[in-house]
Amino acid sequence: DLQICQHRAPTCCTKKMEESYQAAVRRERTQSIQALNFELKYMIVGHITAFQEAFESLLRFAENRTSSLFETAYRPMAKEAAEPVKELFTDISLYILGAETTVESAVLRFFDSLFPLVYSRLINPGITDLSEDYTECLRLTRQDINPFGRYSKNMVTELSKSLWASRMLSQALSLGIEVINTTEHAALTKECSRALVKMQYCPHCQGLTLIRPCVGYCLNVMRGCLASVSELDAQWREYISTLEYLTNEMAASHDLEIALTGIRNSINEAILHAQLNGPQLSATVDKVCGQPKQQEGNLSSDNIVPVKEATETQAFVMAHVSLNHKRREFINYMKRSRTFYASIAERLCDGDLVMRDSSTCWNGEDVV
């Protein structure tokens, strides 16, 4: 009653043993593909982690620099500005990690929140009644009167270019893991598992436990079994090229590190622009939002002088060098894996599975 290992000679196998063999080849194939995938997956996961760690440290650095701008140069609004600054960097982080948001919406939301503070603490420091309605009117007016000039738009442009490449790389790395995981658990067809049993276990039914499959026979069986996986070859090569393009984009003009650390300067320039145009802004706001309550004797805003930017710290330089090094190391490794899916059958037939340097091997029917 054997279905797979039929042979003219007497056999020590049963139908139940054949079923056990089928379960064994399915398990072994998954394990051997997992072993092949391990190094590649480990490299991608390692790079995702390294990329996110370096990125988080750069974000923290840029956020601290931006916060220090308010604490040193614009102290009257530093406490209230802390939340909008935090929100801006959270939005940037979420964008890079693939959230459904845009750099433009994050930056403009920040400047919407910033304008009521700049207006009431720097341009008109005597305002005491900053009601919810008045604050909301200032937020909405910001979009029409553009108090920060070209600086808000420039910030969107600069960040969009550099963060786009980072976002795409982050998504591409996650996609790579998804592809590898899917190929690991690709189900074997009934024909494939039968062919594998015939190749690996049918000799056992004849008592030939030490005979291994012939190399050519193994390659034929594996190529048949993994036809759907090896079809990924063209797309995988294209994927590697895309990774290369994205890492080059990040390292070139769209430099993530420079863009993030430039946020502080952009905000500083934007606030200075608003202060310089204070009288015109006040006249427009009074028409649109009305006049708020003033404290007796206006406080002068002349004493608020922005300090010069702090010099770049050693920590930032180290993070920058480390990220560039990791990018290069990663892409060089990935380029070597271009033929990963094209050569998967060859690598599965390598090693202990087949008989090498021997005069006898199993061809699926007999010992040759």
From TrEMBL:
- PANTHER family linked to this entry: GLYPICAN, GLYPICAN-5
Organism per entry: Aramus guarauna (Limpkin)
Localization annotation: Cell membrane
One GO BP annotation is:
regulation of protein localization to membrane
Q: InterPro entries under this entry? A: Glypican, Glypican_CS
Identify the keywords attached in UniProt to this record, alphabetized.
Cell membrane, Glycoprotein, GPI-anchor, Heparan sulfate, Lipoprotein, Membrane, Proteoglycan, Signal
Q: Which Pfam families match?
A: Glypican (PF01153)
Q: What does this protein do?
A: Cell surface proteoglycan.
Source organism phylogeny? Eukaryota, Metazoa, Chordata, Craniata, Vertebrata
In its keyword annotation, does this UniProt entry include Ribonucleoprotein?
Answer: no
In the bilayer, the protein is annotated as:
Lipid-anchor; GPI-anchor
Q: Does the keyword Cell membrane apply?
A: yes
Q: Which family does it belong to?
A: Belongs to the glypican family.
Query: Which is a Gene Ontology cellular component entry for this protein?
Result: extracellular region
What is the protein name for this chain? GPC5 protein
